[in-house]
Rhamnulokinase
Amino acid sequence: MKYLGFDLGASSGKMMLGELDGQILRTKVVHRFPNRQILAAGGLYWDILNIYWNLKNGIEKAVYESGEKEISLGVDSFCNDFGLLDKEGRLVNQVYCYRDERTKRKEKEIYSKVSKKELYMETGSQSALFNTVIQMAAMVEEGEGYLLDRCRHALLIPDLLAYFLTGEMHTEYTLASVTQMLDWKTRSWHKGIMKRLGIREDIFPEVIPSGADAGVLDKEKNPEFANISLHVVSVCGHDTASAVAALPTVKEHVAYISSGTWSIVGTEVERPILAEETFRYNIAFEGGVDYRYRMIKNVMGLWVLQECERDYERQTRRECSFAYTAQEAKKAAMLKFLIDPDDVCFYMPGNMLEKAAKYCEKTGQGRPETFGEIARAVMESLAMKYRYVLEKMEKILGYRLEEIYILGGGGQNRILSQFTADACGRLVYTGPYEAGLAGNLIVQMRGLGEIATLKEGRQIIRDSFDITEFVPEKCELWEEKYSQFKRLLDM
Ligand code: ADP
């Protein structure tokens, strides 16, 4: 059997074809395409039909490349955004992007109906304006509630794309778990919260587990695929859950960092721990593969570095490759400057080199002068922040997280991986770089019975992808500077 994974990110989509060869997963990326948010008439949207066109295009390529007419497909993407379907099953709205500002405009009104804390305690999801519940409540507040009332169902993006292919409607569990509408205790829709926010209680279809059968291709609706037999498996639709399914270890009590534009730092736990402290620190407990909860905290991630690189390119009109950043950072002095990557001043794009230099000046550290000094400071500070978050989590958990696994594209940043080992004083492992897609394929294989357990899948990932180990070095220096870093966070 050939397995095809579709992974949609905010800036690009990728499709990977995979096949099990003994205990080795052989993979090939067969399709890539750009994705973007589009601002129109004051609303921010995704071009969902273009995304679907690319999904179909990738299926065609996969069939052509593999010569196989029987394919299994899994779809994952960023979470929270949804399309609305009328009773005939037709799409009735443009799919809003989670950054659309209707949520910000109505924040006060929404939280006065259901408090942030209640939403957190009932659902285990982090407090964030992009959550589906806030998006829908904002539509109600802004007079768009009629759309929600008239539609038969709302479908989250991966479920919507699967529906276009199969005609079947469902909500996959990991996606549902981060809408802030799912009762974490019963794993069903939280009708009380929905009602109080004016959202129809049956707006989403039934929640199905990750790995469940999600239907077969509807050939009448997709006549161009008349000769293909396509089976859809409901993989972990939430891309981070999918990446964590691909953890290349069978050990328990390990930490992971899903590293890209954002860094999602976390560990797997059996049950949410919802308390004053976790609420205050906005630590979420999101649904994961096999109902293992992902205890997570969002850290600003490589965003600040990406923006510094863009800024450098604008100023010098020279290309700033990953290799150039690494070379310049290596030239700079160790642990001379530190920033809090989550400081609000770094949230918006633009002018990032100046923002970082100003931050250092303002906090009494002097002013970094070169690009290399700033790039180094950003990476060292991210590593420090990882340690800070891990220590907070360990305090809540009551045990140490012995190893760190960096999943996703950010794992290719070797300097940051070494700094993470040094700052945290733990072994760090990087890979797979396409963790979302690797997890997508593993969950399909388990769904179709080609592998029996998640443990077996993770062992296959470990044996099939290059996993690099980083051993902590120079830990005393990092230890010395860590108290200074913590003081910065209190400023
Ligand atoms: P996202 O979808 O969140 O942007 P990805 O998993 O695609 O995340 O990771 C992309 C990020 O990984 C890039 O923005 C960059 O910071 C980092 N990255 C990718 N390749 C490399 C590389 N060769 N060296 C250093 N960093 C890299």
Summary: Residues 9, 260-261, 302, 306, 322, 408-410, 412-413 surround adenosine-5'-diphosphate (CB under 6 Å). The longest helix spans residues 371-397. The mean pLDDT is 96.
